[in-house]
Amino acid sequence: MNVSKGGERRNLIAGLDYRQVGLSVIPVHGIVDGACTCEKPGCTSPGKHPRIDWREFTTRRATEEEVRGWFTRWTDSNVGIVTGAISGIWVLDIDGEEGMQNLLATGLELPKTLVSRTGGGGWHYIYRLPEGGIKNSASKIAKKVDVRGEGGFIVAPPSKHISGGSYEWQQ
Ligand SMILES: [Zn+2]
């Protein structure tokens, strides 16, 4: 067991599980004592930016050894999943109730799928990648609704959110 301050073994377990089902996993800075583990005073993306140079993990999945190494060394890391072809998924990233209302107002359907509640009151709707792939976009479908596709990533459960909440799979 390797549990350091603010860190938990559950991030390691989640990282290994996600890798096991074919997802490309990366370590993302976590939240300890209400602040980003990057320790930069002006961090604009607390708990949401990768801890490593992650670009290669858009084209190859980390080995079990790599995942084990990251989350053992940094037990407080949030767990990131790279979207796009490498993981075979794309994600509708809906920012809070406002984002959800904006999306529903477009009349687009929201097919039932695996959903993560972000610790900040948003949703990640995770879909299988269609043939031809999906590109990233920000507020293109609707305001406060982003698409995470090729070259994107999401923060996944059981990561911690700057608001104090945790990302959780929706039951
Ligand atoms: Zn940071």
Give me the strand/helix succession.
HEEEHEEHEEEEEE
Number of strands: 11
Residue share in β-strands: 25-35%
Helix/strand-derived category reads alpha+beta
Determine the fraction of residues in helical runs and give it as a percent range.
10-25%
For the record, give the distance between the C-alpha atoms at the N and C termini, rounded to a whole number.
29 Å
Name the poorly predicted regions: 1-7
What's the helix count? 3
Shape descriptor reads globular
Radius of gyration: 15 Å
The main sheet orders its strands as 8-9-5-7-6-11
Number of domains: 1
Secondary structure layout plus pairing:
Layout: H1 9-20, E1 24-28, E2 31-32, E3 35-36, H2 64-73, E4 78-82, E5 89-94, H3 96-105, E6 114-117, E7 123-128, E8 137-142, E9 145-148, E10 153-156, E11 168-169
Antiparallel strand pairs: 1-4, 2-3, 4-10, 5-7, 5-9, 6-7, 6-11, 8-9
Helix pairs in contact: 1-2
Structural commentary:
The chain has 171 residues and is of the alpha+beta class. The protein has one domain (9-169). The protein is built from 3 helices and 11 strands; from the N terminus they run H-E-E-E-H-E-E-H-E-E-E-E-E-E. The chain has a 6-stranded antiparallel sheet with strand order 8-9-5-7-6-11. A 3-stranded antiparallel sheet has the order 1-4-10, covered by helices on one side. Strand 6 (114-117) and strand 7 form a beta hairpin. Helix 1 (9-20) runs antiparallel to helix 2. The longest helix is centred in the N-terminal third of the chain and has 12 residues, at 9-20. The chain is globular. The model is unreliable at 1-7 (pLDDT under 50). The protein binds zinc ion. Residues 29, 36, 38, 40, 43, 46, 49 line the site of zinc ion.
